Amino acid sequence: MLVKCLIGLVLLLVTVVGWRVPAATRRQFSAVGSLADSHSKYFNKDNSVFVAGGKNGVGYHVIKALSARGISVHTLVHKLESLPLLRDLPGVKIIQGDARNPEDVQRCMDGCGAAITALCSGSGPGKEDRIDYVGNSNVIEQAGILGVERIILVTR
Q1: How many CB atoms lie within 10 A of CB 66?
Q2: CA–CA distance from 142 to each of 37, 55, 137 (Å)?
Q3: What is the pTM of this model?
């Protein structure tokens, strides 16, 4: 499971952010390179990408990188305090909502060909309250309902 998460993060960095793998490392991860090529059809100017967890951290940098490449992004924000960072990025559609609400996730994700979720939570008493549990579950479920073909889950 850890290997799959690490490969997913490397794919995210290679495909979306444009991170360059050194030649020696590239030989060790030849399978990652071929997988990254398969992701390029989902992360291009013809597809919108849904991003959850874009307020800061990895999610914000993913949105920024996609925007810089001219890729349309739909992002779900819970609090309006995220707007100043996101509204100046070209091609970013900001929708206010809560990832714990399946209807909000579906409304924001509708029309996207790929989804990236970087949702995480600090502390919470139980799984039912945690954004990383409920929110990520909703992203995965709504992606299936809407026919989104590619999901990348970024965890810490």
Answers
A1: 25
A2: 25, 21, 9
A3: 0.72
User: Minimal CA–CA distance to 31: which of 10, 54, 60, 55?
Assistant: 10
For 45, the token pair is 């100017």
> Mind listing the pLDDT tens digit for each residue in 5-35?
444 544 554 454 444 444 443 333 333 334 3
**Joined tokens for residue 102:** 């399946």
Task: Report domain extents, the chain.
Answer: 1-40, 44-153
Nearest to 58 by CA among 89, 87, 86, 17: 17
Regarding the domain with residue range 44-153, which homologous superfamily does it belong to in the CATH classification? NAD(P)-binding Rossmann-like Domain (3.40.50.720)
For residue 109 the two structure tokens come to: 């994700």
